[in-house]
Amino acid sequence: MYDYIIGQIKRVTPEYIVLEQQGLGWQIFTPNPFAFRKTEELKQIFIHMHVREDAQMLFGFKSLDERELFRKLIQVSGIGPKGALAILASGNPSQVISAIEMEDDAFLVKFPGVGKKTARQMILDLKGKLGSLLDQVELPSTEDELPLFGVNPNKQEMEEAILALLALGYSDKELTKIRPILEDNNELTTTESYMKHALQMLLKMK
């Protein structure tokens, strides 16, 4: 029904962004909301509309390839939109595609909500069908997307990253383990950089 929406990003939260178009604010769920920033410039967001009995939800992506991978993932039994977002939020979809092609279920089960059975189902359903995406999909990464704010901006942005990871399905127990490492890393200055580093550690933990 929708292919894309062009508008101004008015709000960024740990779960979604709000894109304003002609006076209407669209709530759009994305893999990493903090890859976006509030701006008066017009931005194009590629849309997937998910309809269920109790809700109609919009999922947004910066590229067609990112959206295509999302659509492939939600076709797998056991993976819903939230699970697909968590996988895409890792920032390195080529690793996911490679794991599917190499039948590396040990890597796939590291994502929240993906157990052994679901990982095998991903391989069964998608192996051999993602080759065209392997060299094309690259989730954008920006180290300066969000402005610094407050007396202690790094702490604020770290907390935002923690909230976003909770929204993706990671547990308090998992995040408690990596929190001290994030706090001691002075090179992390933005919410997205905290998320990227945290996701790298989480994928190595299991």
TrEMBL record:
GO CC, alphabetical: cytoplasm; Holliday junction helicase complex; Holliday junction resolvase complex
Record-annotated Helix-hairpin-helix DNA-binding motif class domain positions: 71-90, 106-125
DNA repair in keyword set: yes
Pfam (any one): RuvA_N
BP terms from Gene Ontology: DNA recombination; DNA repair
UniProt-listed InterPro entries: DNA_helicase_Holl-junc_RuvA_I, Hlx-hairpin-Hlx_DNA-bd_motif, NA-bd_OB-fold, RuvA, RuvA_2-like, RuvA_C, RuvA_C_sf
Function: The RuvA-RuvB-RuvC complex processes Holliday junction (HJ) DNA during genetic recombination and DNA repair, while the RuvA-RuvB complex plays an important role in the rescue of blocked DNA replication forks via replication fork reversal (RFR). RuvA specifically binds to HJ cruciform DNA, conferring on it an open structure. The RuvB hexamer acts as an ATP-dependent pump, pulling dsDNA into and through the RuvAB complex. HJ branch migration allows RuvC to scan DNA until it finds its consensus sequence, where it cleaves and resolves the cruciform DNA.
Stated family: Belongs to the RuvA family.
Domain notes: Has three domains with a flexible linker between the domains II and III and assumes an 'L' shape. Domain III is highly mobile and contacts RuvB.
Subunit structure: Homotetramer. Forms an RuvA(8)-RuvB(12)-Holliday junction (HJ) complex. HJ DNA is sandwiched between 2 RuvA tetramers; dsDNA enters through RuvA and exits via RuvB. An RuvB hexamer assembles on each DNA strand where it exits the tetramer. Each RuvB hexamer is contacted by two RuvA subunits (via domain III) on 2 adjacent RuvB subunits; this complex drives branch migration. In the full resolvosome a probable DNA-RuvA(4)-RuvB(12)-RuvC(2) complex forms which resolves the HJ.
Protein's recorded name: Holliday junction branch migration complex subunit RuvA
Organism listed in the record: Ureibacillus sinduriensis BLB-1 = JCM 15800
